[in-house]
Fold Pseudouridine synthase.
Amino acid sequence: MAERLQKVMAQAGVASRRKSEELIAKGHVTVNGEVVKEMGLKVEPQDKIEVDGVPLTRENFVYYMLYKPRGVISAVSDDKGRQVVTDFLISVEERVYPVGRLDYDTSGLLLLTNDGDFANRLTHPSHEVEKTYVAKLEGVPYPKDLKPLQTGVKIDGRKTAPAKYRIISTDREKQTAIVELTIHEGRNHQVKKMFEAVGFSVQKLKREQYGQLTLAGLQPGQYRALSRREINALLSLSKED
């Protein structure tokens, strides 16, 4: 089935769809030996596509969910020799990479794939796929303390989108609380910075849910393939360009 060239490039993991369009416009891409600069060109599965002379390979797409432990890098390699998330996918032959990231000291649900278009759909800010985190806070907040999260707080000079929160439990003796926060953005250290903006530091953080996916049935370090139904459900939650 014929598909737009920039979409095929994104699916192969070359770059996002927009970056692929830039590569095409600058003459970096050839189809069957001919330089292509026009947008919207449709290619067939048998067409030979090259980017700067390197053939584009179309792998079978795979989609996994990992329960990332704390103390693991959300990357495929680390120059300091630290453990990375792909170390846990021992039986996966395809070259997968994380969709977005979780901080080194954050645990929880992380998606991995080799489908660049799928990854872009889920991580682009305009697509609004909800992610739910559970945080252990230092201090005991009242609902009024966290209410600004519902309308957005300023972090790194920009206001966050409205979020949803729920106080799960409090421990006044230890002066800690467990709070659930649902956001659809993915800015750097966002959850920690949002809580800091309302006066509470995060001692521990875990991503519990991504769209409709949960960690049910998985222990830290375990992973499983997503079903076609789960993949389609995630894509239906994201908004197309």
User: Anything to note?
Assistant: The chain has a mean pLDDT of 92. The two ends are 21 Å apart (CA to CA). The longest helix spans residues 228-237.
